[in-house]
Amino acid sequence: MSDLTDRQTQILKAIIEEYINTAEPVGSETLDKKYNLGISPATIRNEMVRLTQTGYLKQPHTSAGRTPTPVALKLYVNNLMKPHDLSVAEEVKVKQDIWEYRNRMEKLLREATRELAEQTKTMSLAATDEGDIYAAGVSNILDMPEFFDIDMTKHLLNTLDEYSYWWNIFSRLESGEDPVTVFLGEASGSRILSQCGGVFIRFVSPSHQGAIGVVGPSRLNYPRIVPMVRYMGQLIKEVAPNW
Q1: Cα–Cα 20 to 30 A to 177, which of 24, 47, 61, 70?
Q2: CA–CA separation, 163 and 11 (whole Å)
Q3: Are 123 and 137 in contact (CB under 8 A)?
Q4: What single string gives the DSSP state of each residue in 179-221?
Q5: Cβ within 8 Å of residue 202, ≥6 positions away
Q6: Distance CA 108, CA 156 (A)
Q7: What is the pLDDT of residues 176-223, one digit of tens each?
Q8: Distance CA 140, CA 201 (A)
C-alpha cells in the first residue's frame, strides 16, 4: 500500500480525520487526548516528524501542528478511509428530488448540482460538452476557513466563467470500473487552487458527455462525498439514454 508502518498509518489516518473535521493543524497533544492510539505523546511526535520528512505531513507557518499533504490525502481516499454508505432514506430523497427531470438533461443537471451541494455542504459543479456549466452551493464554501482568503475565493469563483478550464479537467477523468475520480491540488492546474480538492464522475449519453461532482478545500469530507457523487452518477447513468 505504501512505505508506512502500521503505526504511522494509524497516526496519519487520525491526523487526516481530525483535519477534515477542524481545518486546523493537528498536534500530538490532540491525537493523544482524542484518539486511542495506545502510544506515548513522545512517540506520536517522533512519528509525526518522520511523516513530515517523508512528505505525508507539512508544518504550516509557526504552528506546532501538522496538516496532511496531497500525497497523504490520496492515500487516505484510496486505501484508508471507510466510506459512509448512504442510507435508504438518503437514496430515496436524492432520487425523488431529481427524477421528474430525467428526460431533460439541462434541468436534471441543474437540480442534481443543487441536490449535491445540499447533501455535501460544499460547492457542486457540472459541465457538458455543449459548453454549459451548472453550479450550486457557492455560499457553502464561504463558511469554510480556507475560503476566508479572498484571493482564493475570488479565483475559484472566477473559474465558474471559464468553461474550458473545467472541461480540460473533466475530459481527462477516468471512466473505468469505479468512475469516481478524486483530484487534489495539482490536477487543478492552478497555483491558487492547489489547496482545493474535487470529487467528480463522468457520464455519457447517446449524444452528450459530461461530468458532475463537488469542489472545495482539499480536506473535503471524502467518506461522505465519494459515495454521494457515486450514487448521483448511477442515477444519471440510468437516465442518460433518454438524452
Answers
A1: 70
A2: 40
A3: yes
A4: -EEEEEGGGG--SGGGGEEEEEEEEE-SS-EEEEEEEEETT--
A5: 170, 173, 174, 175, 179, 181, 209, 210, 211, 233
A6: 24
A7: 666 799 988 766 566 656 789 999 999 999 999 999 999 999 999 999
A8: 21
**Contacts by 40-46, CB closer than 8 A, 24 or more apart:** 44/11
Rounded-to-integer distance, Cα 231 and Cα 236, Å: 9
Q: Residue 166: is it exposed, middle or buried by C-beta count within 10 angstroms (0-12/13-18/19+)? A: buried
Largest CA distance in the chain: 60
Q: Which domains does the chain have, with CATH numbers?
A: 6-80 (1.10.10.10), 88-242 (3.30.450.40)
* Residue 135, beta-bridge partner list: 125
pTM over cut 0.85: yes
Pull the grid cell for residue 223: 467518506
